[in-house]
Amino acid sequence: MSKQGWGFISSKEIEFTRIFFHWSSLRQNTLRFPEIRSGMIVEFTPIQVPGKGWRAIHVEITDKREKKDEPTTEMSTLSSGLPDAGTSNN
User: How far is 20 from 30, CA to CA, in rounded Å?
Assistant: First the structure.
């Protein structure tokens, strides 16, 4: 997570892609951005933006614990915006 209000989501459904999200994409009934940590389980709606790649909208934290295991296929995990950090699908 960046202090500027953005981060990336890793998903088994969209492999080998870091899905960008901005704090404004968080649902109102979920955690606030400063409370989010890498590895938390989320649900979101992916959209593909031409020329920019994947973006996540309607992001909701479904499990506040940071996961060390692989996520299930229907959920995804938050990762940091830094290379080689956070949760990986590989």
Answer: 18
Q: How far apart are CA 61 and CA 31, in angstroms?
A: 7
What would the pLDDT profile of 71-90 be if each residue is shown by its tens digit?
A: 433 445 565 544 433 333 43
Q: Give the whole-angstrom CA distance, residue 80 versus residue 2.
A: 7
Q: What is the DSSP letter of 30?
A: S
Sequence-distant (6+) residues with CB within 8 A of 3 are none
Question: Strands (DSSP E) along 1-90, which ranges?
Answer: 6-10, 18-22, 41-49, 53-63, 76-79
Residue 44: its H or E element: strand 41-49
List, for the chain, all residue ranges whose pLDDT scores fall below the cut of 70: 1, 64-90
Strand-pairing partners, residue 22, are 6
